[in-house]
Design goal:
This is Transposase, probable. This protein is mainly alpha-helical and 71 residues long. The protein is built from 3 helices and no strands.
């Protein structure tokens, strides 16, 4: 809610935005973030198709949808 610096506020806003995108697409935000962070730490970013990693992509909706029985 509160940030000490403008950069902190920007980072918080980014995370809130991604979380809301997950919720709007009925994704489990925790599982989404866990997957993305593990993927980014184990991959070269230029080799990833970043558009497929967005919360609104079909790949992510299929993988992390709250109603797909994996929760």
């Amino acid at each position: 809610m509160f940030s000490n610096t403008p950069n902190g506020a920007d980072s918080s806003a980014l995370l809130y935005s991604i979380t809301q995108s997950c919720l709007m697409n009925e994704l489990n935000p925790y599982k989404y973030y866990t997957y993305i962070l593990e993927l980014l730490t184990n991959s070269k970013v230029n080799e990833l198709k970043l558009d497929e990693l967005m919360p609104y992509s079909e790949k992510m909706i299929t993988k992390f949808h709250m109603n797909n029985g994996t929760d």
